[in-house]
Amino acid sequence: MIKFLIKRLLEFIPVLLIISFIVFTLVFVAGDPVALLLPEDASQEDIENLREALGLDRPFIVQYGTYLSGLLQGDFGKSFRYNSDALPIVLERLPATIELALSAMVVAIIIAIPMGVWSASKRNSFVDLFATGGSVLGKAMPNFWLGIMLILLFSVTLGWLPVSGRGSWMHLILPAITLGTGIAAEMTRLIRSSMLEILSQDYIRTAKSKGLRKFLVIYKHAFRNSLIPVITITALQTSTLVGGALVTETVFSWPGLGQLLIQAINTRDMAIVQASVFVIAILVILMNLIADLLYRVLDPRIKYN
Amino acid sequence: MSESNVVLNVQQLHTSFKTNSGYVQSVKDVSFQVQKGETLAIVGESGSGKSVTALSIMGLIEKPGVIEKGKIELEQVDLTKINDKEYRKLRGNDIAMIFQEPLTSLNPLFTIGNQIAEAIKLHQGLDTKQAKVNVIELLKRVGIPRAEKVYYSYPHTLSGGMRQRVMIAMALSCKPKLLIADEPTTALDVTIQAQILELMKKLKDENNTAIILITHDLGVVAEMADSVAVMYAGQIVEFADVFTIFADPKHPYTQGLLNSTPKFYEKNEVLQSIKGTVPTSNSMPIGCRFNPRCPYVTQKCLNENPSLKKLDSGRQVRCWLVEEEGETLV
Asked: What distance in Å separates the CA atoms of residue B74 and residue B8, rounded to the nearest whole number?
């Protein structure tokens, strides 16, 4: 297993290199931040001077080389806006985003597992119709709209929950539901179809022929088998989750990475953008690694080699 | 044999499946009895209703399937009348089943020990430790070497033959009165087939278990069966003891099946086949269901379905050609 982990971690290196290149290139072509840093009436000479001071006048490949060598030392550049190193600012915001993403996952799991399993075991019943219809609805509702509707209902009209910000667990409820609904919808469909396939397997018939209760047949013999594709695909969707987090954080003024990233994009704070995207990319890669480890734990047929 | 020796008594079983074009009958008018220690072979081509009959007995017919009518009595208890909870107590305990595909019939995520112990713990109320002792004993009985190690193994680490032994151990774990084996050797290679059949015979003799053996392999029938029910298109077309079936098949379908089997003493003989295929449940021919494929078809066969007639020495045949000879059963 250690060998497997080392191998997987080594595989990260080229992936991260490619990501660094893409991120750098995108920011490079996105435009010159100098115009935003200087007052509107700045002279051409001032602009040139600042460009030179920031190294922005050098060729692309040189700038990338400088950027890369900085990365290797953990230096993601300086934020123009905060006037300090970009990485600590990004990492400071990270826990809030992870908190939101994990809570959304919990919401999704709590909704999706019973719904998916139930609808598969009662195929074509009212429950199934409700779950399938509900998941289409859940998927179709945009995050920002759902967030606003939830704020209007629970915060403005009923006054039960805070409108925005981060602090108590009360603050977490609405953003977690907002972000979790879409994932729950996707997961419900996945679990349903995976369960339907598993329920027609021979070993399910064997389990029934032993005289086991339906509950045991479904949750012991079928559900665990159905989880393998669900985990893989859910892990692959981490990037969708992060994307959703950006929107949700903005709607709820949640002080996370997403909010920071959007502000940074608006102000062309390149270093923050680059550091954020890089951190998000590492998150996605780590989630996939965790999924890999998880389904190896679940399925004895999958070996570490 | 006396009535009290009857383990299973199936009468007039009709099993249907609901489709878009209405109900189609997969099994029609099937009746037979199995005595203690007897092996009844049900033979027929794919689609003849053998497995549906077996699953009906196990109570494992799932929607859209339904047992329309008939009796399935296990030691005088009519299984079509009991509720799901009562059925579960019998399944794996009094009636057990071995399936065709040992490779896919075991759950890949649980150890062999876990899967066999499950039924023992459920029906005999043993704890994990006691169940483990029983499981290892069972594994040894079915001829699995290093049983203690196999207890903790996962199915994918075992060969097909070993897995079928595990399935047999599982089926026999609660000493069932009736064992249904649905093509237990079809997926195995020939040498392993012989070993598995030998094992089933041995275990049957030890426990006096009644066996229903579903197969399309007449070699297996000759090896194992005491009596034989030949099924065609959802109906029993001939029923007799194994010697009578092989020596003097009456139904043209049984004759066809026997003629299409290679014989040891007839070298270089061209094998015969039965022309055509089994009709599907929703396109049954009018009259005798075998008439499109029967070499002796008459006008009567095209119009009327023959009933199952009881002839001398208890054999039963569903054919107009032997109609005059016996009394009508069904």
From this structure: 5
Per this entry, what is the length of chain A?
Answer: 305
ipTM of the complex: 0.85
pLDDT number for residue A133: 92
**Rounded Cα gap, residues A272 and A76, in angstroms:** 8
Q: Which amino acid is at B247?
A: A
Residue A2 lies in a domain: no
For residue A193, name the pLDDT band (cuts at 50, 70, 90): very high
Distance of alpha carbon B232 from its chain centroid, rounded?
14
Tokens of B254: 């049984």
Q: Which residue in A207, A231, A200 sits closest to A221, CA to CA?
A: A207
Q: How many CB pairs under 8 A join A and B?
A: 68
Q: In the predicted model, what is the mean pLDDT of residues B30-34? A: 92
Ordered by where they begin, the domains of chain B are 3-94+174-328 (3.40.50.300), 105-173 (no CATH)
Distance (Å, whole) CA B136 – CA B111: 13
Q: Is the pLDDT of residue B230 over 90?
A: yes
Residues of A in contact with B90 (CB under 8 A): 211
Q: Chain B residues with CB inside 8 Å of A210's CB?
A: 91-92, 118-119, 122, 170
**CB contacts, 8 Å: A201 with chain B:** 104
From CA B251, how far away is CA B297, in angstroms rounded? 12
pLDDT at B1 (0 to 100)? 45
Cα separation, A193 vs A129, in Å, equals 13
